[in-house]
UniProtKB/TrEMBL annotation:
The keyword Transmembrane applies. Keywords: Membrane, Transmembrane, Transmembrane helix. It comes from Paenibacillus antri. Belongs to the oxidase-dependent Fe transporter (OFeT) (TC 9.A.10.1) family. It is found in: Membrane. The chain crosses the membrane at residues 6-27, 39-65, 71-93, 105-126, 152-170, 182-204, 274-290. This is Iron permease. InterPro entries: FTR1/Fip1/EfeU. GO terms for cellular component: high-affinity iron permease complex. GO terms for molecular function: ferrous iron transmembrane transporter activity. Its main location: membrane.
Amino acid sequence: MDFQAFLITFREALEALLIIGVIVTYLTRIGESKWNKWVWLGVFLALLSSYGVALAFQVVLTGFAAMASHIYLKIGILLVSSALLTHMILFMAKQGRDMRGEVQSKVAAILTTGSVINMLVHAYLITLREGIETVFFFAAISGGDIEQAIRSWGALLGLVVAIVVAWTFFRGARKVPLGTFFKITGAFLVLIAAGLLVQGVGIMQDVGMLGTLYKTPGGQIGALYDLTWLMPEHPQDYEHYLRDYGVAPLIDGQVGIFFKAFLGYTQDPSVEEFLAYWGYYFLVFALIVRQRKKESAAVETPIIQP
């Protein structure tokens, strides 16, 4: 169980730390680090909320059947987080163009109240999502004894390693020119937001909230393609493939489950998951292009003197 706890904690903590790190680094790079305390407040409140969820399932609820209701909370968090992150992507794209890399000697970016609230709420939601997922994963591997999993050396070591990896990543990011930083983090956040969206779509199909355009002869949700042979999205899928075909997939399921949680990877996507994933990229690209055209038109419009 210790090794399982290590993998779970490392994966969930690293995802949250990377996203929170992007927000904090972004605020610092544009000279608005005074807002960082509110981001960390969101993280702290999310940790308290996650602890409350763990306590509720440990003390109040009994049996895994009672935990089924968490799925609807997870769907809501995934979709809201994707929307908030999209707003942040567009906001960062606008600021990145206005600053023009290192040309300006002083950053004149002004954060609106709405943008600050967006970052705080997103920091809360992304941490809460990872915290709740960790609680349910711990419940599964410990047979319901969540406290035992939390106190294991694997959970502590996973958290420490995630912090070290995230710190190393953002320490190097400080040396990256501001314009390059915005481009890299912008692309990074688009990938994460698309993954959150497609995870939400997939879960809604699993619980019957969303239908499909393509079904198998047996009436099940059909897949456009199947990449289990390359990288299964879960260790169980890895074992099942090895059992059924006598050969192991090229990439281990532990890698697949990381990319699933981090970027929304799916080994056998439905039509809706495929369209949601690639449609999101098209939508964000269209919104950024539209935003640039509006800004260009505003700059080129001549000012008529009275």
